[in-house]
What we know:
The chain has helices at residues 3-7, 19-26, 34-46, 50-70, 88-91, 104-114, 130-135, 137-143, 162-175, 196-207, 217-224, 237-240; strands at residues 75-78, 96-101, 120-124, 150-153, 181-188, 228-229, 235-236, 259-266. By secondary structure, the protein is an alpha/beta fold. The chain has a single domain, classed as Vaccinia Virus protein VP39 (Rossmann fold), CATH 3.40.50.150. β4, α9 and β5 (181-188) form a beta-alpha-beta unit. α2 (19-26) crosses α3 (34-46) and α9 runs parallel beside α11. The N and C termini lie far apart (42 Å).
Amino acid sequence: MNADELARIPGVNPEVPNAARIYDYTLGGTHNFEADRQAAEYMFSLVPSTRKWMRMLRACLQGAARRLASEGFTHWVDFASGLPTDHVHAVMPDARVLYSDINPLTIAQGQALLGNNPRVRYLECDIKKAGEFLQRPDVQAFLGGERRLAIGGSGIGVFLSAEENRKFYRDLYDQVAPGSKLFTTFETKAPGKTTPRWEQFVGMFQRMGESFQLYSLDEYLEFCEPWKPDGMGVLTVREFLGLPPEHITEEDHEGVGIEFYAVVLEKR
């Protein structure tokens, strides 16, 4: 889909930046407009490592999808999906993949990009009601009654309060069958460290009406209970991807100790 086709989707305004299209641009996608690119470049000017980290996170998602496909998972439910740029369906072509987001415009764009693929669906979902989402008749019909699920929840925690995080993970745990697995990522920084550019970066989200709060790794793992890390354990995204230590430089930590972790959780 080219820019002209994207602009014809009802509700799309090429002059107004959209978070999903900004992310698409960050990942090297083409489903974005000049306003999105300018907003992304401003974000990169504040935290230059953003592009590198985001691309690593998407690579982790793809790696997790390949791994879970090799373990026999045939149904993936993804939360806060954004645009499906190099997303799960691209690496699990034989699986039934359900994407979801709260933004109707993002959903409309995602549906247009996915076309008529019968194995992929994009539906509206508030991640604060993830458990209710899995109970919906249209969701259950698409999943064909399958309850041993692979779930994606990447990059969600920073936009939720501590209690909302706990509810997200607990509600999903209560709805799925034993043996289900959940891929997630955690963004952390050194306690108490900040810079003017970091404060401006956080302020961008606050001006958009978003909560944006980083927790410690121990806090994230407590939020996830009773899910438990599977045999790979909790790894930095660099380790998860098998990259050498020098792949992440001191500059990539942005003076505040930024670090990203990836983990596959399981319901035992």
